Each structure stands twice: as structure tokens, then as C-alpha cells.
Amino acid sequence: MDFIVKFAEGFIKLFQTGADTFIDWMTSIVPLVLMLLIAMNTLIQLIGEERINKIAAKSSGNPLLRYLVLPFLGSFMLANPMVHSLGRFMPEKYKPSYFASAAQFAHTSNGIFPHINPAELFIFLGIANGITKLGLPTTDLAVRYLLVGLLMNFIGGWVTDFTTSMVEKQQKVKLSKEVHLES
């Protein structure tokens, strides 16, 4: 009988932990993301959606802009997870690759820009702890982590282009290379 009681208590504890996490998110990350969405949409309205589409179309034609510059600027200005919202300005063909590059950048920039993805800062700090114990400066590590991250994120985005093309052929689907936004 004790086993059944402990199982039931553990089962309820699981859902209580989920509820606590949900409430924590509702008072921290959800309002932040909502405010960033409002700011981004306001900026888009001020600049003009047509101009943004033209910038996105030009950016999507160049892999360096698509997987290096846009994820960097988006991450720096909007942080994670809002950086992914810029993917809406990418053609369907490049959305998977943009997402791959932006998602990776949210991790490799934490040493220099911890605001981008504070939840992942513990990874950088764990590595930095070892560097500190060796008596070495952590700024060098952070800069190298950022630079290697930029290169690897670009490569990751470009490789995803190739895998997306392979899946297109396999599934006999053709993704658009033009930006199509629905209002």
C-alpha cells in the first residue's frame, strides 16, 4: 500500500512541478517574449512590411547574410527565442537553415552577450570555471567561443540547405525561394 501512496504522491508532484514552471514562465519569459513581439511588429509597421520583405529577399539570396549576419543581429537585438521570428521573412526554402543557424547562435554567444540566452549561460560558465582555475582570462574564451560559433553556425545553416534539398528531392516537393507573407 505504501508503494501506491508514494506513486500517487510522485505523480501529483510531477504535475505540481509543471504548474510551478508554467507560473514562473508566465511571470518571466512570456511577458518578455510578448513585449519583444510587440516591439518587432511595431518596428515592422514603422519601416513598412514591403521594405522588410525586400531586405529579407536580398538577405535570403546570400548565404553569408542569411546564416551569419541575420542570426547575429536577430540574436543580439531580439534574444532567444524571438530571433526565430525573423524566419518569417525567409522564403520556405531557407527557413529550416535559418532556424538551425539562429538556434545554434543562441548558445555560442553567451560568453560575450549573456542576454541572448540566459538559460544556457551555465554551459559557458562551466567551461569558464575551468579556465579561471587555470588562471587564464575568460574574455579570450568568450571571444573565441563567439567567433567559432559564428563560423560553425554559418556552416550549420549552409549544410541544412543541402539536407533540405535532399529531402525535397526525396519527398518530391519544391519549396519556394520567394518570400510570401500573409497579413
TrEMBL record:
Key word Membrane present: yes
Enzyme class: transferase
GO cellular component, as recorded: membrane
Enzyme Commission (EC) number: 2.7.1.-
GO molecular function terms attached to this record: transferase activity
Biological processes, Gene Ontology terms: phosphoenolpyruvate-dependent sugar phosphotransferase system
InterPro entries in the record: PTS_IID_sorb
Keywords, alphabetical: Membrane, Transferase, Transmembrane, Transmembrane helix
Residues that span the membrane, as ranges: 25-44, 64-83, 145-167
Protein name as catalogued: Putative sorbitol PTS, EIIC
Annotated organism of origin: Mammaliicoccus stepanovicii
Organismal lineage: Bacteria, Bacillati, Bacillota, Bacilli, Bacillales
Gene symbol of the encoding locus: srlA
